[in-house]
Amino acid sequence: MRNTSSLLLALIDKNDPVLPLSLRLQASIRSLLLSGHARQGDKLPSSRLLARELAVARDTVEAAYQHLETEGFLVRRLGSGTFVAACEHAFAGAAQRKRNLASTGFRAALSSRGAAIARGGGVPDHAAARAFAILPDVQPFPLDVWQRLTSRVLKTHRAERLMYADSQGHPALRAEIAKYLAAHRGVHCSDSEILVLSSSQQALTLIATMLTDAGQAIAMEEPGFHGARFAFEAAGARLLPVKVDGNGLDVEALRSLPAGTRAVYVTPSHQYPLGVTLTLERRLALVDWARRSNAWIIEDDYDSEFRYDGRPIAAIQGLDPTAPVLYVGTFSKVLFPSLRLAYLVMPKSLMPAFVAARTLIDGHSNLINQVVLAEFMREGHFTAHIRRMRQLYGARRDAFLHAFGRHLSSFGSCVESAGGLHVTVRLDADIPESLTSRAAARSRIELPTLRRLYADRSKTGGWLMGFASLTPGQAARGMGALSQAMKSEMARTGARASD
Question: Is the pLDDT of residue 499 over 60?
Fold first, then answer.
């Protein structure tokens, strides 16, 4: 192999602070061999010579040579030297294989399910709270209490907490969830009917996978939660949009859907994204429709704890414990997003199948977090935290609406909502939603758009503006910046015409 030392000098980074030098040298030699710069039987420089030319210790070169011999890349012969092993296909043919790959245009072909997921783009995560991301405020979370409980949990049965956990969820946590749901959400269930998961998105994916076949129909609110839509589409379901008005999902419209509709997805306590509440009359009618149609009601109760005008609305599941309801809840919005704990309430008959499916995905949720959360709930910290945050978020919502009137009312109007972590804004018909997105992006403002949540993209544009993670001052400054950015964009493009 010619010019080995100079090639290795170009590849190796002797200042890398992470990997030991011998590992970096191994990687460099391996790269030379796999890139076709060697043939079977080529002789490498002696460890002494290579160490001198690279200005490294001889032991470093020896360690790299020995390891590559173990991997089968090199052969070392006493008294003769170090040679490239008999791997002609792997080494000398590497360059030709690259050329063949480029000429054939080979690409990794996704399954139809994989392609559907790729088209959807997934559900975006937010690395940091920016105006106007829909996030909870984690600053007031009682981290000292959580740390104390974590320390206690780790000191008690330490080895047990580091082992695998029950795939259905830690029994003590399931018991606490059942008590909380009965007392505060009107849900009737036992701990044996609760499956602890890592997220509500995982719950929706499981439901879609386990209860629908490709081509079967699922009804969805229009507009509706994009995460649910992606989960159902990825499973091959056919989505049927059902309009939402001031009273929530139009249940009467369900009756005109094709026979065999498998399920309907609803967010009845605080409709996503419009924030309206499904009336009692429609809730009862929805249960009746589901029974008659042999269909499931997928009830997503994603942020119902945060209702600021009156008490939280009881869940549909509690109206009739025998109703065909799959109830989804999450702790990410209530406590903090990185907790990664949610739950699914279902009939006992489904539990064995869902647990079996869950074992194929990730086995179980983080056991330590489950045990700590169970203690957090048992000692009353959970409900106390919700009370504090409800007061805080209620005041922030009111301040947000006031600031909107001062800064952004000339562009659109807020949809009335009694709770949640965001306010939905409908833009005036002559203001292009795409223009506002460009203006927000230029100002580094996160501004989720409304039109993307409709199956019918011709609807009037709008925004979803999160307020919970922002102080009133931050929200007002963000609105002022957005207003200025929009005015500048309009002046630049001369736009105030329909999108």
Answer: no
DSSP string, 130-168: -TT------TTS-HHHHHHHHHHHHHSSHHHHTS---TT
As given in the structure block, the two tokens for residue 165 are 């956990």
Q: What is d(CA 221, CA 454) in angstroms, rounded to the nearest whole number?
A: 9
Task: Decide: residue 281, CB within 10 A, 0-12 exposed, 13-18 middle, 19+ buried.
Answer: exposed
Tokens 């956990």 -> residue: 165
Compute the C-alpha angle 345/347/350, nearest 5°: 100
| 486/141 Cα distance (integer angstroms) | 35
> What tens digit of pLDDT does each residue of 77-129 get?
988 899 888 765 555 455 555 555 555 554 567 777 777 677 766 666 555 55
Which candidate, 71, 146, 130, places its Cα nearest to that of 385? Answer: 146
Q: Which residues pair with 328 in a beta bridge?
A: 300, 344
What average pLDDT does range 456-485 have in this prediction? 92
N- to C-terminal Cα separation, the chain: 63
Q: Can you give the pTM of this predicted structure?
A: 0.83
Kindly tell me if the per-residue pLDDT of 446 is higher than 70.
yes
For the chain, give the mean pLDDT.
88
Residue 427: φ, ψ to 5°: -75, 150
| Contact (Cβ atoms closer than 8 angstroms) between residue 220 and residue 271 | no
Predicted confidence at residue 37, as pLDDT, reads 74
Please identify which residue in the block is written with the tokens 């105006």.
131
Binned at pLDDT 50, 70 and 90, residue 498 comes out as: very low
What residues does 197 pair with on adjacent strands? 342
User: Alpha carbon of 319 to those of 282, 288, 342: distances in Å?
Assistant: 12, 11, 22
Q: Which amino acid is at 38?
A: A
Structural domains of the chain sorted by starting position, each given as residue range(s) with its CATH number in brackets: 4-94 (1.10.10.10), 138-381 (3.40.640.10), 384-493 (3.90.1150.10)
Residue with structure tokens 């919005």?
Answer: 333
Give SS3 for 186.
coil
- 497 has pLDDT over 50: no
pLDDT at res. 355:
97
Contact 240, 219 (CB under 8 A): yes
Structural contact between residues 478 and 139, judged by C-beta atoms closer than 8 angstroms: no
- Could you tell me which residues are beta bridge partners of residue 196? 343
